[in-house]
Write a structure and sequence with these properties.
The chain folds into two domains: about 180 residues, Jelly Rolls (Sandwich), CATH 2.60.120.380; about 110 residues, Jelly Rolls, CATH 2.60.120. The chain is built from no helices and 22 strands. Strands 1, 2, 4, 7, 10, 12, 15, 18 and 21 form a nine-stranded antiparallel β-sheet that branches. Strands 3, 5, 6, 8, 9, 11 and 22 form a seven-stranded antiparallel β-sheet that branches.
Protein backbone atom coordinates (compact mmCIF):
# COMPACT_ATOMS: atom_id res chain seq x y z
CA UNK A 1 0.00 0.00 0.00
CA UNK A 2 1.20 3.47 -0.86
CA UNK A 3 1.90 5.46 2.26
CA UNK A 4 3.13 9.02 1.88
CA UNK A 5 4.51 11.11 4.70
CA UNK A 6 4.34 14.76 3.70
CA UNK A 7 7.58 16.52 2.86
CA UNK A 8 8.08 20.04 4.12
CA UNK A 9 6.92 21.61 0.89
CA UNK A 10 5.05 24.66 -0.26
CA UNK A 11 3.18 23.26 -3.24
CA UNK A 12 -0.16 25.01 -3.35
CA UNK A 13 0.18 26.20 -6.94
CA UNK A 14 -1.39 23.63 -9.27
CA UNK A 15 0.52 23.16 -11.55
CA UNK A 16 3.76 24.07 -9.76
CA UNK A 17 6.85 25.85 -11.03
CA UNK A 18 8.69 22.50 -11.04
CA UNK A 19 6.18 21.07 -13.50
CA UNK A 20 6.44 23.99 -15.94
CA UNK A 21 2.91 23.33 -17.18
CA UNK A 22 1.11 26.50 -18.29
CA UNK A 23 -2.50 25.45 -17.62
CA UNK A 24 -4.86 22.63 -16.86
CA UNK A 25 -7.56 22.22 -19.50
CA UNK A 26 -11.10 20.84 -19.60
CA UNK A 27 -13.35 20.93 -22.67
CA UNK A 28 -17.12 21.12 -22.92
CA UNK A 29 -19.12 17.94 -23.41
CA UNK A 30 -19.85 18.65 -27.10
CA UNK A 31 -16.14 18.75 -27.91
CA UNK A 32 -14.23 16.34 -30.09
CA UNK A 33 -11.75 14.29 -28.09
CA UNK A 34 -9.09 14.87 -30.76
CA UNK A 35 -8.72 18.40 -29.34
CA UNK A 36 -6.93 16.84 -26.37
CA UNK A 37 -9.44 15.92 -23.67
CA UNK A 38 -10.58 12.31 -23.51
CA UNK A 39 -13.42 12.65 -20.98
CA UNK A 40 -14.10 16.39 -20.30
CA UNK A 41 -13.37 15.99 -16.60
CA UNK A 42 -10.30 16.41 -14.38
CA UNK A 43 -9.91 15.59 -10.69
CA UNK A 44 -7.24 16.82 -8.27
CA UNK A 45 -6.74 15.83 -4.65
CA UNK A 46 -5.30 18.31 -2.15
CA UNK A 47 -3.51 17.08 0.98
CA UNK A 48 -3.53 19.40 4.00
CA UNK A 49 -1.24 18.44 6.92
CA UNK A 50 -2.97 17.47 10.16
CA UNK A 51 -1.04 20.27 11.90
CA UNK A 52 -2.92 22.92 9.90
CA UNK A 53 -5.58 24.56 12.09
CA UNK A 54 -6.46 27.74 10.17
CA UNK A 55 -9.05 27.74 7.36
CA UNK A 56 -8.04 27.26 3.74
CA UNK A 57 -9.33 28.42 0.37
CA UNK A 58 -9.15 26.69 -3.00
CA UNK A 59 -8.67 29.40 -5.61
CA UNK A 60 -9.21 29.03 -9.36
CA UNK A 61 -7.48 31.30 -11.87
CA UNK A 62 -9.50 32.16 -14.98
CA UNK A 63 -12.40 29.76 -14.24
CA UNK A 64 -14.64 31.17 -16.99
CA UNK A 65 -14.46 29.89 -20.56
CA UNK A 66 -13.90 32.93 -22.77
CA UNK A 67 -11.32 35.61 -23.35
CA UNK A 68 -7.62 35.51 -24.08
CA UNK A 69 -6.47 32.30 -22.36
CA UNK A 70 -9.15 29.82 -23.39
CA UNK A 71 -9.45 27.84 -26.62
CA UNK A 72 -12.50 28.75 -28.74
CA UNK A 73 -14.20 26.53 -31.29
CA UNK A 74 -16.25 29.23 -32.94
CA UNK A 75 -18.24 31.32 -30.46
CA UNK A 76 -17.57 30.62 -26.78
CA UNK A 77 -20.55 28.59 -25.53
CA UNK A 78 -18.99 26.32 -22.90
CA UNK A 79 -19.97 25.94 -19.26
CA UNK A 80 -17.57 24.40 -16.73
CA UNK A 81 -18.46 23.29 -13.21
CA UNK A 82 -15.96 23.25 -10.35
CA UNK A 83 -16.94 21.07 -7.39
CA UNK A 84 -15.12 20.76 -4.05
CA UNK A 85 -15.55 17.63 -1.91
CA UNK A 86 -14.36 16.50 1.51
CA UNK A 87 -15.50 14.08 4.18
CA UNK A 88 -15.75 10.31 4.24
CA UNK A 89 -15.18 8.69 0.86
CA UNK A 90 -13.66 11.77 -0.75
CA UNK A 91 -10.49 9.82 -1.60
CA UNK A 92 -11.14 6.39 -0.04
CA UNK A 93 -14.01 5.49 -2.37
CA UNK A 94 -12.48 3.42 -5.22
CA UNK A 95 -14.46 5.35 -7.87
CA UNK A 96 -12.79 8.59 -6.76
CA UNK A 97 -9.49 7.29 -8.14
CA UNK A 98 -10.72 6.17 -11.56
CA UNK A 99 -9.38 7.88 -14.67
CA UNK A 100 -12.92 8.11 -16.10
CA UNK A 101 -15.84 10.02 -14.53
CA UNK A 102 -17.93 6.92 -13.83
CA UNK A 103 -19.70 5.48 -10.82
CA UNK A 104 -19.39 7.34 -7.53
CA UNK A 105 -16.48 9.58 -8.61
CA UNK A 106 -18.20 12.52 -6.89
CA UNK A 107 -17.83 10.72 -3.57
CA UNK A 108 -17.66 12.47 -0.19
CA UNK A 109 -19.46 15.59 0.99
CA UNK A 110 -20.05 18.38 -1.54
CA UNK A 111 -18.63 21.46 0.19
CA UNK A 112 -18.91 24.04 -2.61
CA UNK A 113 -19.59 24.33 -6.32
CA UNK A 114 -19.99 26.91 -9.07
CA UNK A 115 -20.59 26.77 -12.82
CA UNK A 116 -18.87 29.32 -15.08
CA UNK A 117 -19.58 30.37 -18.65
CA UNK A 118 -18.09 33.21 -20.72
CA UNK A 119 -17.89 35.96 -18.09
CA UNK A 120 -15.30 38.74 -18.35
CA UNK A 121 -15.53 39.24 -14.57
CA UNK A 122 -13.49 36.08 -14.08
CA UNK A 123 -11.26 36.38 -17.15
CA UNK A 124 -7.63 36.26 -15.93
CA UNK A 125 -8.92 36.74 -12.37
CA UNK A 126 -9.24 34.49 -9.32
CA UNK A 127 -12.34 32.93 -7.77
CA UNK A 128 -12.05 31.50 -4.23
CA UNK A 129 -13.93 28.53 -2.79
CA UNK A 130 -14.07 28.45 1.02
CA UNK A 131 -13.24 28.97 3.77
CA UNK A 132 -12.89 25.31 4.65
CA UNK A 133 -11.83 23.90 7.99
CA UNK A 134 -8.97 21.42 7.38
CA UNK A 135 -10.96 18.73 9.20
CA UNK A 136 -13.69 18.99 6.53
CA UNK A 137 -11.36 16.94 4.34
CA UNK A 138 -11.10 13.16 4.68
CA UNK A 139 -8.33 12.15 7.06
CA UNK A 140 -6.04 9.69 5.27
CA UNK A 141 -2.98 8.06 6.79
CA UNK A 142 -2.17 6.69 3.34
CA UNK A 143 -1.79 10.18 1.89
CA UNK A 144 -0.53 11.92 5.02
CA UNK A 145 -3.23 14.43 5.96
CA UNK A 146 -6.73 15.74 5.31
CA UNK A 147 -7.71 15.23 1.66
CA UNK A 148 -9.97 17.51 -0.38
CA UNK A 149 -11.08 16.84 -3.95
CA UNK A 150 -11.78 19.37 -6.69
CA UNK A 151 -13.42 18.29 -9.93
CA UNK A 152 -13.46 20.45 -13.07
CA UNK A 153 -16.09 19.15 -15.47
CA UNK A 154 -17.37 20.39 -18.81
CA UNK A 155 -21.14 20.80 -18.67
CA UNK A 156 -21.90 21.95 -22.21
CA UNK A 157 -20.30 23.54 -25.26
CA UNK A 158 -17.21 22.61 -27.26
CA UNK A 159 -14.49 25.06 -26.16
CA UNK A 160 -11.39 24.46 -24.06
CA UNK A 161 -11.30 26.03 -20.59
CA UNK A 162 -7.74 26.71 -19.39
CA UNK A 163 -7.21 27.38 -15.68
CA UNK A 164 -4.96 26.93 -12.65
CA UNK A 165 -5.46 26.34 -8.90
CA UNK A 166 -3.88 27.68 -5.74
CA UNK A 167 -4.51 26.46 -2.17
CA UNK A 168 -4.28 29.46 0.12
CA UNK A 169 -4.81 30.62 3.69
CA UNK A 170 -6.41 33.82 2.33
CA UNK A 171 -9.49 34.39 0.14
CA UNK A 172 -8.06 37.27 -1.88
CA UNK A 173 -4.36 36.44 -2.27
CA UNK A 174 -2.12 33.39 -2.70
CA UNK A 175 -0.63 32.52 0.70
CA UNK A 176 0.91 29.06 0.82
CA UNK A 177 0.27 26.34 3.42
CA UNK A 178 3.51 24.71 4.49
CA UNK A 179 3.53 20.95 4.17
CA UNK A 180 0.61 20.62 1.76
CA UNK A 181 0.71 18.88 -1.61
CA UNK A 182 -1.66 17.92 -4.41
CA UNK A 183 -1.92 15.03 -6.84
CA UNK A 184 -3.99 13.56 -9.62
CA UNK A 185 -4.19 10.14 -11.24
CA UNK A 186 -4.82 11.48 -14.74
CA UNK A 187 -3.36 14.76 -15.94
CA UNK A 188 -4.97 16.80 -18.73
CA UNK A 189 -2.93 19.89 -19.53
CA UNK A 190 -1.85 22.43 -22.13
CA UNK A 191 1.69 22.26 -23.48
CA UNK A 192 3.80 25.34 -24.02
CA UNK A 193 3.89 26.62 -27.60
CA UNK A 194 7.59 27.47 -27.27
CA UNK A 195 9.59 24.26 -27.94
CA UNK A 196 12.36 25.37 -25.58
CA UNK A 197 9.98 24.81 -22.63
CA UNK A 198 9.96 21.28 -21.22
CA UNK A 199 7.01 20.22 -19.04
CA UNK A 200 7.24 17.62 -16.27
CA UNK A 201 5.07 15.32 -14.19
CA UNK A 202 6.28 13.27 -11.24
CA UNK A 203 4.75 9.84 -10.46
CA UNK A 204 5.91 8.40 -7.15
CA UNK A 205 7.47 4.91 -7.21
CA UNK A 206 6.82 3.04 -3.97
CA UNK A 207 8.71 -0.03 -2.74
CA UNK A 208 6.33 -2.52 -4.40
CA UNK A 209 6.51 -1.20 -7.95
CA UNK A 210 8.27 -3.55 -10.40
CA UNK A 211 7.28 -1.85 -13.67
CA UNK A 212 5.24 1.10 -14.88
CA UNK A 213 3.09 1.55 -17.96
CA UNK A 214 2.91 5.09 -19.34
CA UNK A 215 -0.29 5.96 -21.23
CA UNK A 216 -0.67 9.17 -23.24
CA UNK A 217 -3.48 10.53 -25.38
CA UNK A 218 -3.47 13.00 -28.30
CA UNK A 219 0.22 13.91 -28.08
CA UNK A 220 0.00 14.69 -31.82
CA UNK A 221 3.53 13.32 -32.29
CA UNK A 222 4.70 16.68 -30.94
CA UNK A 223 8.25 15.60 -30.06
CA UNK A 224 9.12 12.99 -27.44
CA UNK A 225 8.21 11.87 -23.93
CA UNK A 226 11.23 10.79 -21.89
CA UNK A 227 11.83 9.39 -18.41
CA UNK A 228 14.50 10.64 -16.01
CA UNK A 229 15.20 8.96 -12.67
CA UNK A 230 18.11 8.13 -10.42
CA UNK A 231 18.97 5.32 -12.85
CA UNK A 232 17.30 6.33 -16.13
CA UNK A 233 18.75 9.10 -18.27
CA UNK A 234 16.31 9.85 -21.05
CA UNK A 235 14.47 6.58 -21.74
CA UNK A 236 11.73 7.42 -24.25
CA UNK A 237 8.08 6.39 -24.00
CA UNK A 238 5.89 5.56 -26.97
CA UNK A 239 3.96 8.67 -28.05
CA UNK A 240 0.43 9.04 -29.42
CA UNK A 241 -0.81 10.78 -32.53
CA UNK A 242 -4.01 12.77 -32.93
CA UNK A 243 -6.98 11.48 -30.94
CA UNK A 244 -5.51 8.10 -29.96
CA UNK A 245 -3.89 6.41 -26.96
CA UNK A 246 -0.43 4.86 -26.88
CA UNK A 247 1.45 3.18 -24.06
CA UNK A 248 4.81 1.66 -23.21
CA UNK A 249 6.09 -0.41 -20.30
CA UNK A 250 9.28 0.40 -18.39
CA UNK A 251 10.98 -1.76 -15.76
CA UNK A 252 11.77 -0.30 -12.32
CA UNK A 253 15.08 -1.12 -10.64
CA UNK A 254 15.85 -1.18 -6.92
CA UNK A 255 17.43 2.30 -6.88
CA UNK A 256 14.20 3.87 -8.17
CA UNK A 257 11.96 2.55 -5.39
CA UNK A 258 10.69 5.17 -2.93
CA UNK A 259 11.60 7.99 -5.32
CA UNK A 260 9.79 10.02 -7.97
CA UNK A 261 10.32 9.70 -11.72
CA UNK A 262 10.46 12.78 -13.93
CA UNK A 263 8.37 12.28 -17.07
CA UNK A 264 9.37 15.05 -19.45
CA UNK A 265 7.43 16.40 -22.43
CA UNK A 266 9.88 17.68 -25.03
CA UNK A 267 8.39 19.39 -28.07
CA UNK A 268 9.68 19.07 -31.61
CA UNK A 269 11.90 22.12 -32.15
CA UNK A 270 11.34 22.29 -35.91
CA UNK A 271 7.62 21.46 -36.17
CA UNK A 272 6.17 22.37 -32.76
CA UNK A 273 2.36 22.28 -32.57
CA UNK A 274 0.43 25.23 -31.12
CA UNK A 275 -2.32 24.76 -28.54
CA UNK A 276 -1.40 21.13 -27.92
CA UNK A 277 -3.37 19.51 -25.09
CA UNK A 278 -2.36 16.09 -23.78
CA UNK A 279 -3.66 13.48 -21.32
CA UNK A 280 -1.42 11.11 -19.36
CA UNK A 281 -1.72 8.45 -16.68
CA UNK A 282 0.60 5.76 -15.32
CA UNK A 283 -0.09 2.33 -13.82
CA UNK A 284 2.06 -0.18 -11.95
CA UNK A 285 2.49 -3.86 -12.85
CA UNK A 286 -0.93 -4.66 -11.37
CA UNK A 287 -2.69 -2.03 -13.47
CA UNK A 288 -3.18 0.21 -10.43
CA UNK A 289 -3.12 3.94 -11.06
CA UNK A 290 -0.16 5.88 -9.70
CA UNK A 291 -0.46 9.44 -8.32
CA UNK A 292 1.32 12.43 -9.87
CA UNK A 293 2.37 14.84 -7.11
CA UNK A 294 2.68 18.47 -8.16
CA UNK A 295 5.61 18.74 -5.76
CA UNK A 296 7.59 15.52 -6.30
CA UNK A 297 7.95 13.30 -3.24
CA UNK A 298 11.64 13.19 -2.33
CA UNK A 299 12.43 16.05 -4.69
CA UNK A 300 13.12 16.21 -8.41
CA UNK A 301 15.02 13.02 -9.36
CA UNK A 302 18.56 13.36 -10.67
CA UNK A 303 20.33 10.72 -12.71
CA UNK A 304 23.11 9.24 -10.58
CA UNK A 305 24.75 7.04 -13.17
CA UNK A 306 28.38 7.43 -14.10
CA UNK A 307 30.06 7.44 -17.46
CA UNK A 308 32.72 4.77 -17.39
CA UNK A 309 35.77 5.44 -19.57
CA UNK A 310 37.16 2.49 -21.48
CA UNK A 311 40.97 2.35 -21.26
CA UNK A 312 42.86 2.43 -24.54
CA UNK A 313 45.06 -0.59 -25.02
CA UNK A 314 48.63 0.09 -26.02
CA UNK A 315 49.87 -1.65 -29.11
Amino acid sequence: MLQILPNITIAQSIPTTEENIPYLVTFGTQSETKWGDDDFCETFFIVIPATQVNPLYIRVYDPDCGGELDEPKGKFDTKTSFLVYGGKGCISDPDAKNIDPKGNYKSGNLLASKTFDDNSKYDKNWYSFGPFNPTEGEMSKEYGGYVFKIIAQGVSGDDGNLFRYFVSTQPDENKAIEGSNAFTFEYTFRMHDNPSNVSHIYPYIDKDVVSIKVFNFDWDNDGLIRLISVSKNGITAKVSGEGNWESSTHLIVAEEKNTSIDIQFVKNRTMAIRNNNVVIYVTNQYGQLMPFYVSPIGGIPKFKGKIVATPIKKK
